[in-house]
């Protein structure tokens, strides 16, 4: 049982007029496309390594374009802090990544060896990722703001043999832990400028000397390509293993869920330290041969509007936390910028409040398309599409080739089994754990060093995501909450998202995080932490007003019983509200793994 179906009923669906869209969408008829789709067929959109030597992400993303008509097309366009840009064409990227592969090979770094990065969004990062694939080595991008301990843990778990970083990051974060990392043989500095630190190498000098075109090593679809750590929202981050065949899913989902077309100028705001920034900040756009924008700076409302306008971005993939931040700054901030090039906006990472979807209409002249996936799924699994109506608050419907279901859970949260099979929830709007039928190409192939945990993620032929959702009678999925976050109050199961979205509809509320706190009568009651919009001051009257507002919308059983104002909600560095931290702080419990916690600027 869930509380209410508020979000599904209050907001009217946003229809789409396919004929009025500036560019004909790749997916027009959802049911027809799903019925016709197979992953084998999807592989035909890729080239495969010349001479039938297998499949390699770097060839699909770079060299096949460099060898053809798109050689001089801009592959990556970097926007510097001062707004100026510098670009790499597909041909230049092919050459640079070839040189990087040659450097690795020259040092004896080979097949399956792990190459890490600790870098901001600079060209060397992109060259290193793709060059590593060319050498059949495995890449693991780390977020540059990690402290020394999270860096050490991940390098150690991943058995990092090489690391690409900057002088400043090396001095601050790697030098102090280097002697505890015996596997780490080579550290490349991207800015050594002829003077590397002791025990490091000058990457620019090595690239110059390396033979310009290293041949791409033969890799097969099932060969490991990437190691990605999860966001650490629910606990210690897990290392998810991905293979070269993931590019099949990146290409297909780029086509259907992001509606990529060859002439697009596409901007994914995620950092490659998180899976979105690699799958959709590097692989998907390049596999499509489009121009990908990379902003070297951090989130700032005016700057982002400038980048959208000045770079003439056509397709934009971002996150709810960033959108809520822009919303907090006010839609009028968008007004002075020419956003007419923008034709498709998508969001991932957290539930997207209906309020934000509607605001998109005001700020960008179009709704925002929510989609759902995880580090483990490697690519988008459930999405709203360019051509299909949006139901604000819903994540949309499964991608072609993706079979999703809801698995019934017992009182303790375990899947309900009957005769060796999991019991699926089939009635509309009922709650279940979101599950996927294994077989999509970007599925993770392991949690590094945690075989048992990986095994436990699959039950009765389904991958269990750990997220709870509902599905309406038309097949749209509605996120309820993470299994760990749902609140059990007087027999109701309350999803924090529904409560947070209602709070956000109050004129004073910029963002909200909701948890359950123990209550002797109800078991748990709802407590909200609320960040106010500029111009609003915390007061007892406002507190009562917001609670009253939520009670009217949600009813007394679901509305927050308690509400605190906060200057900023704790978040992961990838922008997710850390409810487990709100709860630990509220209850005076240990905070657990804090390696990915964003430190407020
Ligand atoms: P950890 O697994 O370490 O706790 P995490 O789950 O946040 O961290 P990610 O793999 O980066 O790590 O995030 C995936 C999760 O993000 C999903 O399982 C889901 O809970 C949430 N999420 C992603 N997209 C959406 C969305 N569109 N709506 C709701 N939730 C989403
Ligand atoms: Mg997770």
Walkthrough of the structure:
The chain is an alpha/beta fold. The chain has a domain at 487-587: ANL, C-terminal domain (GMP Synthetase, Chain A, domain 3). It is 30% helix and 22% strand. It is built from 19 helices and 28 strands. The strands form 7 sheets. The chain has a 9-stranded mixed sheet. The chain has a 5-stranded parallel sheet with strand order 4-3-5-6-7, sandwiched between helices. Strands 17, 20, 21, 22 and 23 form a 5-stranded antiparallel sheet that branches. Helix 11 links the parallel strand 10 and strand 11. The longest helix has 17 residues, at 90-106. Magnesium ion (MG) is lined by residues 230, 234, 374, 466. The site of magnesium ion has 4 residues, from loops.
Helix content: 25-40%
The CATH topology of the domain at 487-587 is GMP Synthetase, Chain A, domain 3
What's the N-to-C terminus distance? 40 Å
Kindly report the spatial arrangement of strands forming the biggest sheet.
Answer: 2-1-11-10-12-13-14-15-16
Instruction: Provide the gyration radius in Å.
Output: 24 Å
- Tally of separate helices: 19
- Sheet-strand content, in percent, reads 15-25%
CATH class of the domain at 487-587: Alpha Beta
> Helix/strand-derived class?
alpha/beta
User: Low-confidence spans: pLDDT under 50, at least 5 residues?
Assistant: 1-8
The general outline is globular
Q: Let me know the CATH homologous superfamily of the domain at 487-587.
A: ANL, C-terminal domain
Task: List the bound ligands.
Answer: adenosine-5'-triphosphate, magnesium ion
* Known CATH architecture of the domain at 487-587: 2-Layer Sandwich
Largest sheet: 9 strands, mixed
Number of strands: 28
> What integer is the average pLDDT?
95
